[in-house]
Amino acid sequence: MLVHKAVHAATTVAAATLLAATGAPTAHADNTRLNNGVVANVYTVQHQAGCSTNIKRDPALTQAAEWHANNVLNDRGLDGDLGSDGDLGSDGSTPQSRAAAAGFKGTVAQTVAINPALAINNLDVINQWYYDPADFAIMSNCANTAIGVWSVNSLDRSVLVAVYGQPA
After folding, report:
1. Number of helices (H) and strands (E), helices first, in the chain?
2. Strand, helix or coil at 48?
3. How many Å apart are CA 123 and CA 44, to the nearest integer?
4. In what order do the strands lie in the sheet with 106-115?
């Protein structure tokens, strides 16, 4: 009986520890492969659209994408839809103002992919954007020669933001 009580106590402590660990708001994964895959997919979409330029990563646009991805992940009221307030941050910032604050000089546009799960992959992202006319127009715009991509995850939501730029 004493062994049974000890096992029960140990199980209770382990369960409490597990619940505390899983209650963390975000999962800190290395999403480099995903982010790079999205850049490669955008490159492919642009070349299928007849673009002859090569889209290049830009650190300032990546910073702007990171800011908005974190904001969308943590504020469930932000849905990322284009043409509505989805481009706005919870502080009222726009893709253009975030890019400028990060140091980018030029015109920008943004696409956001949200998946209601712990993980998201580049097929989830491309399927969301490719078949949406507004997102596809941004992705396939040959004038967008710079890009920043950032993705973040929580246990029940994954967000990926791409900010496209036309350097001044």
Report:
1. 6, 4
2. helix
3. 13
4. 56-57, 146-154, 157-167, 106-115
